[in-house]
Amino acid sequence: MGSPCHFALFELKPSFRLDLEQLAVRYRELARNVHPDRFADASDREQRLALEHSASLNEAYSTLKSAPRRARYLLALSGPELPLEVTVQDPDFLLQQMHWREELEDLQDSADLQGVATFKRRLKIAQDELNERFAVCWDDALRRAEAERLMRRMQFLDKLSHEVRQLEERLDD
Fold first, then answer.
1. 6-65 is classed in which CATH architecture?
2. In the prediction, which pLDDT does 157 show?
3. CATH of domain 91-172
4. 41, 49, 71, 74, 75 from 14: Cα distances, Å
5. Where in the sequence is the signal peptide annotated (predicted)?
6. For 128-135, what is the mean pLDDT?
7. What phi, psi does 85 have (nearest 5°)?
8. Per-residue pLDDT averaged across 106-114, rounded?
């Protein structure tokens, strides 16, 4: 885990619920201050430090603006490092994943752009519900296993959402 904490860079308390607009505004302010171009005439050391700070800021911002990455980061702050890939001990969700994948394949096969839009809306609702459930339990040590399970579900839905956008672009061409 890089230091300082991603939240500290933005002068925020560690929390799952963030105002993403406010985060983006703060990011742009901070990015302007450490942009490597501002250090063009500085010493090599100052240029390197500016570059490192800029990279840290970019990493922190991309982590905090993504709900699944933010969830994973919060869990990592409060406990042991989580393995990236795990076999999900979550049979109900595995079944749900299979249904979603089959539905997405059918939409692709039928080139149903309207169906893809409907699927995308349902997926967004599922993501919002997961985010809310995670927000409620992430900082409760007694609910750590539940929070980890929800975070993994969030990662899956984020990946599925990316695939839906790609399908939408292909069908739109």
1. Orthogonal Bundle (1.10)
2. 95
3. 1.20.1280.20
4. 36, 25, 10, 7, 11
5. none
6. 97
7. -110, 125
8. 93
Residue type, 102: E
Residue 84: predicted pLDDT: 57
pTM of the shown model? 0.85
Rounded to whole angstroms, the Cα distance separating 3 from 23 reads 19
Residue 60 pLDDT: 96
